[in-house]
Design a protein that fits this description.
Strands 5-6-2-7-1-8-9-12 form an eight-stranded mixed sheet, with helices on both faces. Strands 3-4 form a two-stranded antiparallel ribbon. It has a two-stranded antiparallel ribbon with strand order 10-11. It is an alpha/beta fold. Helix 3 packs parallel to helix 4. The protein has eight helices and twelve strands.
Amino acid sequence: MPLQMYQEQKSPPKPKIKNIIGIAAGKGGVGKSTITVNLALTLKQLGYSVGVLDTDIYGPSIRKMLPEDRMPTQKGELIAPALCQGIKMISMAYFRKENEAAVVRAPIANGLIKQFLNNVEWGNLDFLLIDFPPGTGDIQLTISQQAHLTCALMVTTPQDVAVMDVRKAMNMFNQVKIPVIGVVENMSYFLQQSNQEKVYIFGKGGGERLARESEIPFLGAIPLDPKICASGDQGKSMYSDENHPAVAPFKELAKNFIGHLDLLSSQHDHLQAFELVWKEVSAS
């Protein structure tokens, strides 16, 4: 039985979330949800407290990839998120029947997004990863403007048609003054088992080229591998298999991501200090 969505909501006590990260691409089919789920699992593996917010109203998929150990619950008009392998999670998938289409217009979808942003009791988290829906329209702007994002992580595949749409999404974040922390290239290469040679099925270097031309960090390349697909389809953590091909690339991605996030935080602190000094000088 799906949970009920209320028309009127009271905001819960403000959670203490250190970093709210938008994971976006501007298009579908590049694996944003795969990146979101496996980055969340990796950050959890590294000892961080993590939440995931699936904001794809029309095609939520994270519930299948990250099945719940504990269902979300309602506390009056507020929602306590599901618990999935130690990760807190909320998704539209909990509020409709399985295989039921979400036939809602954009204003209603925006209302649902606002409830997810304002009426879920996340508690204290190191990271809240927001899996953005495809596109750069009204829903994406609502999330960008109301989620208090720390930064955005861009997901692309190597081919030019994917990179083109990712550029548009980056432009949206630039317009709303949200820093883009870097680019990750998904389905980057296929590793042949016979000779360990990399085969670049969808082209080569699109993500690195986008990062270089945009003057932002390239955070990592995730291989195209049937085991990654199988993990998502079966809802199993890649960390349940010590030989899983995605473990090393996602640990590298997490390492680079955390490093650049620390740098971004340091730059923000320096900027705030400079602005404070400038105000004092200007007032004297």
